[in-house]
Design brief:
Number of helices: 2
Largest sheet: none
Radius of gyration: 22 Å
Helix content: over 70%
Length: 64
Amino acid sequence: MLNLLRRPRPEPSPAESTLAAAAANRPPDAPALLTDLAARASTLGREAAEVRGAIDDAHQQAGR
């Protein structure tokens, strides 16, 4: 039922499909990959700590 509400995806142009194929065949840039992964992991850890704090605060408020 929800598929009826979705818009169909546009077909990729030949240039886009060629670029995607070229990018798939290229080896990954390890230093850039590690830098990006480290930044994302840092953000994820910080966000998880904020969520844990919000859960603890809600738990304390519910106990009062």
